[in-house]
Amino acid sequence: MATDLPEIVRPDEWAPLVIRTDYTDDSAWREVVAELDRVAGAEGRSESPAHMVDDRRWDGATSDEALVAAARDEELSVVFLADGVTMRSPLRPLLALDLGADDDHDLDPVYYRELIDSPPPRDVRVVPDAVHMVHGNLQLANLDFPEFAEAAAADPEGVVRDV
To answer: What are phi and psi of 97, to 5 degrees?
Structure first.
């Protein structure tokens, strides 16, 4: 995998960023896209359509590589990956990566030892119809990423469906 991934330019900060990193199943990808489009256009909903990155240069990109590339967008709080798990699971759960997880590196160990020793989760699985809800709540700081991790832990299949 090349370390120089293409720059991502989102036209709208309210549009969730979804990057395809697995190209093994085009039909599964079309299902993910259709579900994201359906949710954004559902009656009474006003979400921006998700910004889809469907570029083979992302094929095989790791979550760490995606985090570095997505972090260039200072307005972005979370990025969603359509990876191998997404393509193989009937739920099509995207991998949500917390872009704010690395903000803890400057913590004073005297006061924040517990947080340093047990950092909060930086990723969680999200079903496509919950992507806009997760993105919007993180962008507005209504909820924190660990709250979504708790919701996933309480789900029988380990995914965020709704909070």
So the answer is: -115, 130
| Spatial contact of 93 and 86, defined as CB atoms under 8 Å apart | yes
Cβ contacts of 159 within 8 Å, gap of 6 or more: 91, 93, 124, 125, 126, 127, 130, 152
CA torsion, ordered 161, 97, 120, 139, to nearest 10 deg: -70
* Whole-structure pTM value: 0.85
pLDDT tens figures, 73-93? 888 899 999 999 999 999 999
Structure tokens at 77: 């709080």
* Residues 27 and 68 sit within 8 Å (Cβ to Cβ): no
Nearest-CA neighbor of 94 among 58, 131, 49, 69? 131
Sign of CA dihedral 137, 128, 93, 152: positive
The H or E element that residue 81 is part of is strand 78-82
Rounded to 10 deg, the angle between the 26-40 and 131-139 helix axes is 60
- For tokens 């259709």, the residue is 34
Residue 8 to residues 12, 61, 70, 71, 120, Cα–Cα distance (Å): 12, 14, 7, 10, 26
